[in-house]
Amino acid sequence: MNDRPGQQKSFLRARIKSFGYAWRGIAALILTQGNALVHLAATLGVIVAGFHFHVSAGEWLALVLAMSSVWTAEGLNTAIEALADRITTEHDPLIGRAKDVAAGAVLLAAIAAAVVGAIVFGPRLLALLR
Asked: Domains of the chain: which residue ranges?
């Protein structure tokens, strides 16, 4: 990056614009994907439960990493599906495999997140039942 003021302002404007695109993508993910609404509900539930049960910093770290991995996988899955559908809407075995693998990645991330949630919240929930 050059140190001239005009180029610095241009660089800053471009970065701000890129954040706008990213927020637009997040909104599109949530508004167009049914599974993203499930992830949103789960994310909000985990956050509420985390505050309610006063989870430790290490537990928050595990929960945030688990939640972000699910969101990342869902976003990439959605992007792959959109690109594949742009290429062709006809059945193509390789596109089908790409979509299946991307969906499988979301499932694996969700299973791992559920395991993290069970480790963090399971003992607390069991204690409530006693």
From this structure: 1-32, 34-129
One pLDDT digit (tens) per residue for the chain, 130 residues: 556 767 778 888 899 999 999 999 999 999 999 999 999 999 999 999 999 999 999 999 999 999 999 999 999 999 999 999 999 989 999 999 999 999 999 999 999 999 999 999 999 999 999 8
Clarify whether 90 is annotated catalytic: no
**Which of these is catalytic: 59, 74, 81, 90?**
74
Q: Is the pTM of this model over 0.85?
A: yes
Half-sphere exposure of 122 (CA within 13 A, CB side): 7
CATH 1.10.287.3610 applies to domain 34-129: yes
- CA–CA gap between residue 106 and residue 124 (Å, rounded): 27
CA-closest candidate to residue 70, choices 118, 121, 35? 35
φ, ψ for residue 54 (rounded to 5)? 50, 55
Q: Which helix (H) or strand (E) holds 89?
A: none
